[in-house]
Structures are given as C-alpha cells and as structure tokens.
Design brief:
Number of strands: 13
Radius of gyration: 32 Å
Helix content: 25-40%
Largest sheet: 8 strands, mixed
Strand content: 5-15%
Number of helices: 19
C-alpha cells in the first residue's frame, strides 16, 4: 500500500497560496518547481503514516496459541476472490481518478458564479488536491491501524491449519498450557512450533484481525461515496431547528415544514451506492474465501468507515451545509500550529478563489434545491441577492485614489512623522512582501454594531445573544448586496443590561449611508434588514442618485422594477417598529481593528494608533471621542476583524462628500482601506487621507475601497 497518494500537512500549499514563494500557483504565477513536485511535497505526511503501517509488516505477528481440533480454523486455503493489487486499484486508484475527473471537469456547478479563467483553474486544482489529501489521509490511517493491530493481536485465520500443516508427533513439545498434557482430553492449546509450514505464508495465518481488505475497501470507497454525495448534493432533507428560529429570529418560521427541504433525485443514489456495494462485496469475499472470521470483517469495515469519515471531514465541509466545497487552505502564519488565543487556522485571506459570492439557494448538478442557510454560506457559490452594478468600474490602483504629490502637497508629504510619541512593540512583525491592492472582498453595506467592548470572541457571530449572531442566522437576506458586519466599541444604551437577551437594545451604524439605527435587538434583526439595510445606499450606488423615500411612498405607487433591486414597501404602511434613526454626526470616520482574540497584533496596535490619531486631530479641533456628538470632526472607533491580520494594522477611513451638506444625502463618498499602518504614518493619514482623500503610500498600504463620485470601486 506504499503506492498511496499521500500528503504532508497542507501548510506548504497554504504558504504557496499566500505568496511566500516568489511566484505561486495560487497567485497565478509560474513556480520554479513543476506542479507534480508540489503535489509530491504536499503528500509526505500521509506517506509517512502509510510507511509506518508497512513497517509493521516486517515485525512479524504474535502467533497466538490455537487448538488443532478447533473447527473455526480448519477451513481449506483457497484462491483469493480479490487480490491485494486489485484491492489497491479499486479502493485507491479508481477513487483518485474519479476525484481528479470530477474536480477538473464538473466543478464548480452551473449555478456557481464563474470567476476568471485563472481563478476557476485555481479553484478546480484546490478541490482536486483537497479531495486527494482526504483520500490519502483516510487510506493511510486505515493501513497503519490495520497492520499494527494485526501484528499485536496475532489472531489465527480460518485457514490456519491448512497453512500450518501440524506435525502431530510434536504435540507434547508444542503444548502451550502448563497442565495441557496432564488432562484426560489431551493437549488443549499448542503454539506454532507444531507447524511444518513456515515463512510469510505461516505469518499470514496469524493476521486475521482486523480484515485489511475490509478496512481498506471501506476507507477508500466510503470516502468516495461521501465525496460524491457532497459534490452532487445527495443528502437526506432535514427540518430547520425550531429552537434556532424562536431564539435567534424571535418568531416562528412562516415556511411550511414540508417546504423546508426537498429530496434529491433518486437516480443520484447510484453514485454513492456503487462504491459502497463494491466495498461490501470485497469485505464479504474475505469471509467466503476463508481468510477472515465474521467479527474480523465487521471490525475492519467499521474501522474503514470511521477513517473515511475522518479524512472527508478533515478537508471538506458538511454534506448538507457545505455546498460541496473543500475547506480553504490554512493561513500561512498558522500552517503548522495555530497557537493559543487564535480561534481558527484560516483567515479571510485563506481562500483560493478571491471575491466569489455565495448562493442562498444553490442548485446541485442533479437539479434539486438545497434549502438556504446563512450560517453556512461558502466561497464559490453564487448569491441570488448579490447585485452587480455595471455603472461602477473596477479601478486600477493608480485611479481609485490619488497619491500625494511633493510638488503640490509639500516635499515632506510622504515622510514619516518625526515627532511620533508612540511606537509598536519591538517584536511586532507583519507580512511586508505581498502586494495588497485588490485583496479584499467587495461589500455593499457595512454595519457597525455597538457593543461597548474592544475585543470579542474569535468570530463575532459567536457572541451569544448578540445582533451579530442574529444576523448570521437570520433567514432574511439583504436585497442590496453583501453585508459586512463588524462589532464596535460604540457604547450601548445604559439600560440595555436590564432587558432579556433577545430584546436587549443597541445601536447600529449603516455605511455608506452614515445612518444610526437605534433600539435594535437580536429579535428585531429581520425587520432591521428588511426595513433599513436593504433599502440603504450601497458602496456602488452612484453618489447623489435619488433614493426611494420609503416614508413618503404610498402603497399605490410602490413597486420594484427590473432595474431596481426589490425593496420593502413603505415602512409606515407595513409595520410599526421600535427603531429610531438619525444621521451620524461626524464628517469622517476612522475604524481600527482591535480584535485581540483573533490576533494579538490588532489588540496591540489599535490603542497606540488611536492615541497618535488623537494627538494629530485635537490641535485641529477634529477629534471626537465615543460620547462627543458635536457635528463634524472625526470619529475614531475600534472594530472587530475586517480581514488581513497579517497586514496589521488595518485602518478604514470613511469620508463624506465635500460638496454641500455631505453630497448624496449626507452619505459617504469614499472608503479608503489601508493596512500596515504604523504610528509614524498617522500624521500623513490625517493630513492627506482623512482630510483630502489621498494616499501617502499606496504601493505598501492601499488594500482597496470605493469612490462613489468617480464611480470606481475596489478591484476584484
């Protein structure tokens, strides 16, 4: 079994994807090593496990004493129905070939949004690679456990006496029991010393438990069945959790039970059933060939199934909720160990295909629908609610925001602050080589949730009884595009703690609308999305375009058109809500990632940067703290993970339009997303980025953003 396709832990692949080599496959470049050598290097770990299993075979089994009158070991030695080579071909090579073909020819499905040719190829290659890694892991672990157990147990096969050819004249010399030669029945147990047979054939006679053919067949073929079920969406429908609907959404689902799922086409069952039937045939042949006892066959089968499940789930999302995709590569900083205080092995930069949106109702190749669930939206699936605005172009780096010009802005415009009073810790290290621009996921609306905290659990959607959690599990999707949600240190109402968790009020800030919505509770999130988020302006809404005034519309003239995303009818004619809204009072907003639980660097850098921003803003009369409601000025807030911890510190600057009272009804005209910001950069960020919309160091710091006046957005 040493010919298995195996893997080393896929940290090497993650490192390639993240750009730690000069040019990587994940970045679309040509790497010096051939692709075959990359796969070889990524399979060393599983090969090592398989080699360990092979090594057990050279030790030799314990030869358990036996009774020469036992009928259970007196069967004839027959020809094998399935040889070891046929087993390897059927259980390893054929599944590997099927995974290769399906990954490259059929994925992604017809409903998935098609990325560029190079991104599509990278997606296919990763799905193929992850499929092989799971198969290799399942097969290697099965092989090692099976061989090791065989050697330790040394259980006789049903055909042992045919292999042993016992010499009855030596029965007294081979007695295993201390009193065996003293009882009337004669010798009860003997050792292998009575055998005239020897060598490999006799050793094999003591390797009955567990059945290696059974474990290997079920490991490879059950893995293939699980893999095909995931790719083709073959799963038994289930009802959504009533407790989840009551506790998070605050009301029972109006979707009838029978409409919450649908059975896949029955013909699809043939794809997982053929591998399983083949595994059952191989396992059964070991009993009929007198190679194993029934218990050995059953035990080996269970072992193979367990290892198949482990290999599949190690690299792939759940069948029902994963959309058929494999997990993304690990973050390069966590390729070999996660470390204490880090919640996951992946970060937002660990996706193979950049900026593919998701599908709330993904149709599988078999033609059936999978019920939508916001909690398990997966990269690569299209989103029926995501709108692409052709009026906005994907701007190159040089066009999105102007760079400071020494001839206009002064000779020192691109210099670091000479009077900086704070510095990052000496051991503060970030990724400095990778090009940043365009490596962010587009968003339509950015929602900041007031929590009164500057640090949160690893994923803010996991904050129990929070608005973030309610948004994650809400069955109401924003109709105007992707919603980016961030927890913030904006203060909560003073009486919030006295309310039940599901009704505990807080405030949210919607961007780019610059609108504060108050009295938002977890149970009211569906109404918040329907009545305020969906009708809100987005990052790709042209600045100054008239928005539908819901408060003044009547039922008779409300309608949606093909050109306008469908939105909710007038609030006043539909429902009375507890929400109150007001405009955000400040002209500019600086967001600093302070999510220490996700990455300690963010927790270190955010307070230092805020102190330095305050030092430069106060002399200008622009600094506004959390409780300062004076109009104008600059708000500086802490927010949760926004992506790219390895590029700390991340800073997002939202700017209102310069004209009139803020241009498009007081909305943000620009968002400038910077990274690798250090305290000595803060003066330039205030002078040029915040106040003028220019970037001091675009080559090193600009990640993306949008400009609604120019009709430009971040690159994809």
């Amino acid at each position: 079994m040493t010919g298995h396709r195996m893997e080393r832990e896929h940290g090497h692949w993650a490192a390639l994807k993240a750009g730690q080599q000069k040019e990587t496959l994940m970045d679309g470049g040509a790497h010096d090593a051939s692709f075959a050598s990359l796969l070889w290097q990524a399979q060393i770990f599983s090969r090592a496990i398989a080699a360990l299993g092979a090594g057990f075979s050279y030790i030799g089994p314990r030869r358990r004493p036996f009774n020469i009158t036992d009928p259970e070991i007196s069967f004839p030695h027959t020809e094998e129905t399935v040889s070891s080579w046929v087993l390897f071909i059927v259980s390893v090579l054929i599944p590997a070939a099927i995974i290769f073909a399906v990954s490259l020819l059929l994925g992604p499905g017809s409903t998935a949004q098609k990325p560029s040719t190079s991104a599509l190829l990278r997606r296919k290659v990763w799905e193929w690679h992850a499929g092989w890694m799971g198969l290799a892991l399942a097969s290697a672990i099965t092989f090692a456990i099976t061989n090791g157990t065989k050697e330790v147990v040394g259980k006789p096969r049903p055909d042992l006496l045919s292999r042993c050819k016992p010499d009855l004249s030596r029965i007294l010399d081979s007695a295993a029991g201390a009193i065996g030669d003293q009882v009337e029945e004669g010798i009860i147990l003997v050792t292998s010393e009575i055998c005239r047979g020897s060598g490999f054939d006799l050793d094999e006679g003591f390797r009955s438990f567990p059945s290696g053919h059974s474990s290997t067949a079920f490991a490879g073929l059950t893995y293939l069945a699980l893999w095909l079920s995931a790719k083709l969406g073959i799963a038994i429908p289930v009802l959504r959790s009533p407790a989840l609907e009551r506790g998070i959404v605050g009301q029972e689902s109006k979707t009838p039970c029978r409409s919450q799922g649908a059975a896949p086409p029955i013909y699809l069952l043939i794809f997982p059933l053929i591998p399983l039937a083949t595994a059952i045939f191989i396992a059964s042949s070991r009993y009929s060939d007198f190679r194993h006892h029934g218990f050995d066959v059953v035990s080996g089968s269970i072992l193979g199934i367990a290892c198949a499940w482990l290999g599949f789930r190690w690299y792939h999302l759940p069948i029902r909720r994963g959309g058929g995709w494999a997990w993304a590569p690990r973050s390069p900083q966590r390729a070999f160990i996660k470390g204490v205080g880090v919640s996951a092995y992946a970060d937002d930069e660990s996706t193979v295909v950049v900026d593919e949106q998701m599908h709330s109702r993904a149709t599988k190749p078999g033609g059936h629908d999978v019920a939508p669930t916001r909690a398990w939206r997966c990269d690569g699936e299209t989103d029926s609610l995501q709108k692409k605005y052709d009026t906005f172009s994907k701007a190159p780096e040089s066009r999105l925001f102007p760079k400071v010009d020494p001839t206009v802005d002064g000779e020192d415009c691109d210099h670091d602050c000479a009077s900086c009073e704070v510095h990052l810790p000496r051991n503060f290290k970030v990724e400095e080589t990778r090009k940043l621009y365009g490596h962010v996921k587009p968003w339509a609306t950015h929602m900041l949730v007031a929590t009164g905290k500057s640090d949160w659990v690893g994923h803010v959607e996991g904050e129990k009884d929070s608005v973030m959690e309610a948004v994650k599990y809400s069955k109401i999707e924003p109709s105007n595009g992707k919603l980016m949600i961030s927890a913030s240190n904006m203060p909560m109402p003073e009486d919030a703690s006295s309310q039940p968790p599901a009704d505990r009020p807080t405030s949210v800030l919607l961007l780019p609308a610059f609108t504060i919505v108050e009295n938002v509770s977890p149970s009211s999130v569906p109404d918040l999305i329907r009545l305020h988020v969906s009708p809100s302006s987005t990052t790709t809404t042209p600045l100054g375009q008239a928005r539908i005034d819901l408060e003044n519309q009547s039922d008779s003239n409300w309608q949606s058109t093909a050109e306008t995303p469908p939105i909710t009818p007038p609030i006043s004619s539909v429902i009375t809500t507890p929400f109150t809204t007001r405009p955000y009072p400040h002209k500019y907003l600086i967001l600093l990632c302070s999510h220490r639980t996700r990455d300690a660097r963010c927790g270190q850098s955010a307070p230092l940067l805020r102190r330095e921003f305050e030092r430069h803003l106060r002399p200008l009369g622009l600094y506004r703290d959390l409780h300062d409601e004076r109009p104008g000025g600059v708000g500086v807030y802490f927010v949760s993970h926004i992506g790219g911890h390895k590029f700390s510190a991340n800073v997002m600057v939202y700017r209102r339009a310069e004209s009139g009272d803020g241009g498009g009804l007081g909305e943000a005209s620009q968002c400038i997303w910077l990274a690798r910001v250090r305290p000595e950069d803060c003066e330039g960020v205030v002078r040029f980025t915040v106040l003028q919309g220019k970037v001091v160091k675009p080559e090193r710091q600009l990640r993306g953003g949008f400009d609604r006046e120019k009709g430009l957005s971040l690159s994809e």
